[in-house]
Amino acid sequence: MASVEGGDFVTGDAHAEVAAVVVAYNSAADLPDLIDDLRRAARDCRVRLIVVDNQSSDGTVDLVRAHEDVELVETGGNLGYAGGINAGLRVVGDCDAVLILNSDLGLAHDTLPRLIGAADADLVGAVVPRILDEDGVTYPSLRREPTLTRMVGDALFGSRMWRTRPSFLSEIDYRPSSYTSRHDVDWATGAALLIPERVAREMGEWNEDFFLYSEETDYFRRIRESGRQVRFEPSAVVRHRQGGSGTSPQLAALMAVNRVRYVEQHHGWAYSTAVRGAVALGELLRAGDAVNRRTVGVVLNRRHWHELPKATKPTVVNKLSGSRQRGAVIIPAYDEARVIKRTLEPLSQAAVDGFIELIVVCNGCTDDTAAVARTVPGARVVELEQGSKPAALNAGDQEATLWPRLYLDADIQISAAAVLAVLDTLSEGDVLVARPDSRYDTRGASGLVRSYYRARRRIRQHQLAMWGAGAYGLSAKGHERFGVFPTVTDDDLYVDTRFDVDEKAVVTTVSPSVVTTPTDTKSLLAILRRGHRGDTELVALGHRPDAERNPGVGTAVAVVRSIRGPFSAIDAAVYLGMALASRRRPRNASSGWERDESSRSSS
Question: Where would I find the Glycosyltransferase 2-like domain in this sequence (predicted)?
Fold first, then answer.
């Protein structure tokens, strides 16, 4: 079913300029107008439309099914906004950009091309439009990063008093002049945003810790931390009916609590406690309203937080297709009882169904890593008395029967689909060594650690290297180049030095693997010292390290070239400072294996 004045949507494997993801929940009254607007846009732009239904009960599903060229994703539960977006991102297919939309929006005829035009710049990570309310008045949708002073200001003055107050006293940007010209912002309401596909792929999934509210705050923060900007384009206009997700006292309390949860994920206990007090103050000053009175109690009593709306997720079985026996996954593990199950569970069904061999090599473990691993269906466990990663890799090779092979650190999170994508790439013959694309999870990390990894992400050579992602794969032919893993500290860097650029590949996957970073400077320096020692070993073996791992001129030049402004300059300085500090051996330093304990928490 298509409108007579509109175009058809792109379907199947065809390329789309824009893949629009609309999260719907009881949206039957709103969706027809939005679909018509997108069809009009599809006359001049190749649009793929994906509607993600969060278990609606008002006929939304039947309405979408009436459009044969609209892809419907039924979640089987109410996953919330972030969960719904993630379900849509998994099926966007071949596209240049991803457009996230609320279901209760209307688009002007030129909204889409204007968003696309604004996104056509290297450092733009997302573009947000100007939003009009039902009366055609510009809605104050632009936001500043939440801080304690801004939350106190909003608590005292709200949205009606002293709207011209300084920016450090208001999270919302009320200035009319801010909505008349293109500029960069901290974040904006998540009703509508366009994300270049390469950015969406790098950022990975939205944070489902937030069922509703603050998920966009978190996502925009990650975009900014990647060194990119969030751009406001006032000439791109959408109309928002508001309230498409519904309103209730429960949702009002959830909005307040999620403001606290967001700060808790990015700041320490003392700061978060002060913010929690500011949020409670804002509700208390408006306690004449019953909803605000109830919200105060919920914010102050953490025991009530679990009663707030949350995702209702069905039991999902990830179905893989294609041939069986695609390769092996070898996981060396030393005292990884806290994280090994988190790593194994996404791969378990693929092992049970025969797609992969899943082998855990416990080496010198003093905890119950082996016992925990054996509880995961499909996992085979090998135990070594000696604590040695190279020995564990070689023992895994002896146990495995399939090629190619993915060598995976025990604390890396990766999907079965990503594993198979790497193994399939290696099976094609031209590529001898490959790894999945990856992203850093810096939640809970200190400001200096986050700054270091922002700078590291910007180094082009690092993005193409086989080391540093906690996972790499080898074909049988590639493995023959060195036979057995030598006794070196950095096996991934060693492998990287054995192959030419045209023999390597970073495989694009729907969900990048997740590398959890250290949370404090001490832990970061520990693993950097280990890396420096690994560089020294490889020099002794006659293998010259890559420039990014060399503390000399090559690294400095690459980091300086990544600078695009004052913030990236600060990140670059932190990166170089950490690199230099890691070359100094601390007093009373042990000669053992340094690893990051700060990020190893149970799943």
Answer: 21-146, 329-451
